[in-house]
From TrEMBL:
Any GO molecular function: U3 snoRNA binding
Biological process terms in GO annotation: endonucleolytic cleavage of tricistronic rRNA transcript (SSU-rRNA, 5.8S rRNA, LSU-rRNA); maturation of SSU-rRNA from tricistronic rRNA transcript (SSU-rRNA, 5.8S rRNA, LSU-rRNA)
Subcellular location: Nucleus, Nucleolus
Region annotation (Disordered) ranges: 1-26, 403-460, 509-531
SMART domains: AARP2CN, DUF663
Bias-annotated ranges (Acidic residues): 423-435, 446-460, 522-531
Protein family according to the UniProt entry: Belongs to the TRAFAC class translation factor GTPase superfamily. Bms1-like GTPase family. BMS1 subfamily.
CDD domains named in the record: BMS1
Keywords on record: ATP-binding, GTP-binding, Hydrolase, Nucleotide-binding, Nucleus, Phosphoprotein, Ribosome biogenesis
Gene Ontology CC terms: 90S preribosome; nucleoplasm; small-subunit processome
Protein name per UniProt: Ribosome biogenesis protein bms1
Length: 1096
């Protein structure tokens, strides 16, 4: 065995597929012959494709946009210190060529002849994010590429998902902080993929590479502005069905006498802004988010302060004129023109604009409001005007970390184009900027430090002034020499366009031109010595010099004027007359005759298609009035010479061209037959017809009369007066917080029970408890209420939940404003806390509105038997009075052992006891319990969030109702400890029941089926002594065991043989039985055949 070598089994070869075998053998596959290999897969693929197309389709809406719509709201959203204000300033500079130093409130600019936009910056407040998400048409989401995604970005995206998703563009900033180019590409790719995951695949992401003079590159801002101007804005459902107004100017028109008598009196306020969405109506109920509900006292329209340019009949210009580049930003102090109801105010400065420095100091001291010694003790030393105070808390940046994000390779480059209609490669811009020499960068820094830096000379000391004067004198030394050196440095760095276009062959010409240019720039002393230097020319250079003054030269941009032909003379003009379409051609090739023939052929084809007249009749009556020299006979001869195939070919081409134009442009309604039209096509036609009817109905009326019928439509600049506004809105006004006037429908002013479907957000780290206060943003309103959670059972019962499920939806019922169904909302537990965690607690949608509630919870009552009879018992300790017993008469009860019963009637004593019947006799030690459901009353708590009424430094610190846990934590109270509420492990005693013994007499009477059959045998256990066997006994016992084992094996083998023999016997008997049945069948056929013949 040791000599033999071990033989292992060989590995089986990998089986190759049929396609691989076919490729190896060299057999080609015809893809057209085997295009559809499986009909089921093809059907699934087709259905999936149709499902995707059907999901993209949306029901067409009636277009209610006016001819002059309101400016689109473009919001710039992002966490602090990401460059939002710089983006807005860059866009304003691109559109209007103006620099706006301070941006506060909305800024409206004219983009082109048909578009205006309102730029709005969102600060780092959750209230501001909610309001801007509701009114924005386009959102520019600014992201710091050097830091990554922050919590504010994802909070804003989730708010948009609930209130309606506007168009979103991503803007990456701070890319110049990352110095490594590979890391920049990797960061771009990671941020782009995560951005696509959160919004949708393919959303645009712009890259702003760097800052120069505190501005982004003009090319990048140009690309961003161009995409904003061509993007299509999708109207949202809520904003298209509700009117709203973004306030860009506010005025307090309250009587001064009322303010003198009472500083805290309610004010009368005028709000100005463009109307958006649906039409405003007089005396309409409106809501100002962060303030409250009001009713419009008066409303009218005034002239547009930022109108679109008028359409002139002159030649169309693609760009705007300088006078049409308008900007309107009253909160930022730009423009200086304010429109009112009956006047126009122009800010001219006047005598009050220039005040002495001393008066400014006095006014600032008076504004302090406390003694100077206390002010100096509390204040910090501040050297610069923009210095940061020590007491200010640093901003906590909330970075988002994704655990499922895969790191990409450094070598992968991902260059993203910014648009579909045009391509703007930001990477090429980066390369161009990085290609600048270090000298240019130094120049940029020098210009930045000398020209752009503003120095207030009045605040400088005398020593500083002397130093500055000395610096100016030194700067003027050798100014001529410095100018020459800087000029030659710039001239050497500039690329020669001629060399880039025509190549290096003209190097000789460039050298001579450069030398001549340089010599002309030198002083007059050098000009006298120009004729002393001569260079001998070779034959090649002579040939080049001769070649460059010929028409056939490769580069003819320097062609001399002497060799040009003067085509103003008739003799020279005749030489090239036949080279153009109007020249002298053959009779058949003449342009005028060909055009005339084509026109006649088209007329003939139209006549044949319409069957209006016969060809012969048309040819006989045809008479060319424009060209009397042409005759119909010549036309007939030309037509007759053409073949019928060519005529048919031209006719088909014309038909095909007409069909393609109609189908591609959808200009004709007969593109699809009636049987091929879908539901979407019919709905689109209905919406289009309704849009035309709406526009034609009030088209002939003047605007003053039209407003009385249909209200103040979108696009008008409105002046709304509201009475009864709290004084805090005016006193604590901050332009960085937008003021929105949202209109309500007739049914949305009431308050009732709202039933909604809610789900806890997966990123919120706390679980929501029942009855805890929630701040809900729904519709235009932000309010605080108490939500009661429930879930619907299979029998339709709404069972109350203590907490929200982990990954499931549940129902929430709360007391709040009546809102239409399918309206989304966002819930927060607090909007004032500063935390690094996610702040959105839950999202949901409104299901239905009801005046009543149907939430129930479990109620388990326990009682003990007082007296026990056969099947009746008196139960006590379950109720406290007879009145409670009567409420539960007929209710089902049960014992712990499982015996069911029913409540009958109360008894006199003790109080609350009752009589009950059971299925069987219960034990006196048993426990009786009652399972029931009781209604849960919903508290009617509703409080509007009034964040706009708070002071400027506390607008983000609104506090409403606190939870019980917060109150205990603030007061140092412990949670109440009820021992009965603790969960305890139930310990039951083990009961040893006696065996059931049936008497013998009863056993005799029982039927056989019920008689006990397997009774345990009674035997007395006798303690025996262990027996020790000797050797003879052991041998005999082993022999008996072997014999038994052999006998057992023999019987098993005999049984197998017998089974095999029986199986063979069954087979033989089955064959015999088959033969016998076949013989019987044949005999029956023979007999029946004989009987049939005899009957005939």
């Amino acid at each position: 065995m040791m000599d033999k070598a071990q033989v292992n089994k060989k590995h089986s070869k990998k089986r190759q597929s049929k396609e691989v075998q076919r490729i190896i053998k060299g057999k080609s596959v015809n893809p057209k012959a085997f295009a559809i290999q499986s009909a089921v897969k093809a059907e699934r693929k087709f259905r999936h494709k149709q499902d995707v197309i059907a999901k993209r389709e949306k029901l067409p809406q009636i277009d209610r946009t006016p001819l002059r719509p309101a400016p689109f709201v473009v919001s710039v959203v992002g966490p602090p210190k990401v460059g939002k204000s710089t983006i807005i300033r860059g866009l304003i500079r691109h559109y209007t060529r103006q620099n706006v130093s301070k941006i506060s409130g909305p800024v409206t600019v004219v983009c082109n002849k048909n578009l205006r936009i309102t730029l709005l910056e969102c600060n780092n407040d959750i209230n501001c994010m909610i309001d801007i998400a509701k009114i924005s048409d386009l959102v520019l989401l600014a992201i710091d590429a050097s830091f990554g995604f922050e919590m504010e970005t994802f909070e804003f995206l989730n708010i948009c998902q609930a209130h309606g998703f506007p168009r979103i563009l991503g803007v990456l900033t701070h890319l110049d902080v990352i110095k490594n180019s590979k890391k920049i590409n990797r960061v771009k790719k990671q941020l782009k993929h995560r951005f696509w995951t959160e919004i949708y695949a393919g959303v645009k992401l712009f890259y702003l590479s760097k800052l120069i003079h505190n501005e982004y590159l003009r090319n990048e801002m140009h690309n961003l502005a161009r995409f904003i101007s061509v993007i299509k804005i999708r109207p949202l459902e809520w904003t298209s069905s509700h009117p709203y107004l973004l306030v860009d100017r506010i005025e307090d028109v309250t009587s001064p006498e009322l303010i003198k008598t009472n500083d805290k009196c309610d004010r009368r306020v005028c709000l100005f802004g463009w109307s958006r969405g649906a039409n405003f109506k007089p005396k309409q109920a409106v809501h100002i988010p962060g303030c409250g509900d009001f009713v419009i006292d008066s409303i009218n329209f005034i002239p547009d302060p930022c109108p679109l340019p008028e359409r002139e009949n002159e030649k169309r210009r693609r760009s705007l004129k300088e006078k049409d580049k308008c900007i309107y930003a009253p909160m930022s102090g730009v423009g200086g023109i304010i429109f009112d109801k009956d006047a126009i105010y122009i800010d001219l400065g006047g005598s009050h604009s220039s005040k002495d420095a001393q008066s400014n100091i006095v006014t600032k001291i008076n504004e302090i409001g406390k003694p100077l010694n206390k002010f100096n003790e509390d204040s910090d030393l501040k050297i610069f005007s923009e210095a940061i105070a020590k007491n200010n808390e640093p901003y906590l940046r909330r970075k988002v970390v994704f655990t499922d994000e895969n790191s990409d390779d450094d070598s992968e480059n991902d260059h993203e184009n910014v648009g579909d209609d045009y391509s703007a490669n930001e990477d090429s811009v980066d390369e161009d900027e990085n290609a600048l020499d270090s000298s240019t960068e130094k120049e940029i820094l020098e210009f930045d430090s000398s020209d752009d830096e503003d120095i207030d000379e009045e605040n400088l000391d005398t020593n500083d002034r002397k130093k500055r004067e000395l610096y100016k004198i030194k700067w003027k030394n050798d100014i001529l020499k410095k100018a020459q050196e800087s000029f030659y440095q710039r001239y050497e760095r500039t690329e020669n366009i001629q060399r880039l276009v025509y190549g290096e062959w003209s190097h000789f010409d460039e050298e001579t031109d450069d030398d001549s240019n340089r010599q002309n720039i030198l002083d007059d002393d050098d000009d006298d010595d120009d004729g002393e230097f001569f260079t001998p020319l070779s034959k090649e250079s002579e040939a080049k010099s001769e070649m460059r003054f010929t028409v056939n030269s490769i580069e003819c941009s320097k062609f001399p004027d002497e060799m040009l032909i003067d085509f103003s003379q008739d003799s020279e003009m005749q030489l090239i007359r036949d080279s153009f379409v109007t020249g002298k051609w053959d009779e058949k090739e003449d342009a005028q005759t060909l055009l005339e023939n084509d026109r006649k052929l088209l007329d003939q084809l139209h006549d044949t298609d319409d069957n209006a007249c016969d060809e012969k009749f048309c040819d006989e009556d045809f008479e060319d009035l424009e060209n009397p020299t042409s005759k119909s006979d010549e036309f007939e001869d030309e037509v007759s010479t053409k073949n019928d195939e060519e005529i048919l070919k031209t006719k088909k081409l014309l038909k095909k061209q007409q069909f393609n134009e109609e189908y591609d442009n959808l200009k004709s309604s007969d593109v699809l037959m009636d049987k091929e039209k879908t539901f979407i096509d019919f709905e689109r036609e209905k919406a289009q017809k309704q849009t035309e009817i709406n526009r034609k109905e009030f088209e002939h009326l003047p605007l003053e009369q039209r407003v009385q019928y249909e209200g103040f439509q979108a696009g008008l600049y409105l002046r709304i007066e509201i009475n009864g506004v709290p004084c805090e809105l005016v006193n604590n006004f901050d332009p960085s917080y937008p003021i929105i006037v949202g209109g309500h429908q007739h049914c949305e002013t009431d308050i009732g029970f709202v039933r909604a479907r809610i789900k806890k957000h997966r990123w919120y780290n706390k679980i929501l408890k029942n009855k805890d206060p929630l701040i809900i943003s729904m519709g235009w309103r932000r309010f605080q209420t108490q939500a009661f959670f429930s879930i619907e059972d299979h029998n339709g019962r709404n069972r109350m939940l203590k907490y929200t499920p982990q990954h499931m939806h549940c129902l929430a019922t709360f007391w709040g404003p009546i809102t239409p169904q399918n309206t989304g909302f966002v819930a927060f537990q607090s909007i004032s806390e500063r935390t690094s965690n996610f702040r959105i607690a839950a999202t949901g949608v409104v299901l239905d509105l009801d005046k009543g509630t149907q939430i129930v919870k479990k109620l388990k009552l326990i009682g003990h038997p007082l007296k026990v009879y056969k099947k009746t018992a008196f139960i006590s300790n379950m109720f406290t009075s007879a009145l409670e017993v009567t409420k539960f008469e007929g209710a089902a009860i049960r014992t712990v052992s499982g015996i069911r019963g029913q409540i009958k009637k109360p008894i006199r004593t003790p109080e609350g006891a009752f009589r009950a019947t059971f299925e069987d006799k219960i034990s006196s030690k048993d426990i009786v319990f009652l399972r029931s459901w009781v209604d849960v009353p919903i508290s009617k708590f509703y409080a509007t969030v009034t964040s706009l009424l708070l002071p400027v430094d506390k607008k983000s610190q609104w506090l409403g109702m606190k939870t019980a846990g917060q109150l205990r934590y603030e007061r140092g109270l412990s949670v109440p400890n009820d021992p009965n509420s603790h969960y305890q492990i139930s310990q039951r005693k083990e009961y040893h029941f006696k065996p059931m013994i049936i008497p013998n007499k009863l056993q005799e009477e029982l039927p056989f089926r019920s008689k006990p059959k397997l009774m345990p045998k009674k035997f007395n256990k006798v303690s025996r002594v262990a027996v020790i066997k000797d050797s003879h006994q052991r041998r005999s016992d082993n022999l008996i065991k072997r014999l038994r084992l052999a006998y057992r094996e023999q019987t098993a083998q005999d049984r197998l043989v017998m089974q095999k023999r029986a199986q063979e016997h069954r087979k033989k008997m089955s064959e015999i039985e088959k033969n016998r049945e076949a013989r019987i069948k044949a005999k029956k056929k023979f007999i029946m055949r004989k009987m049939g013949k005899s009957n005939k």
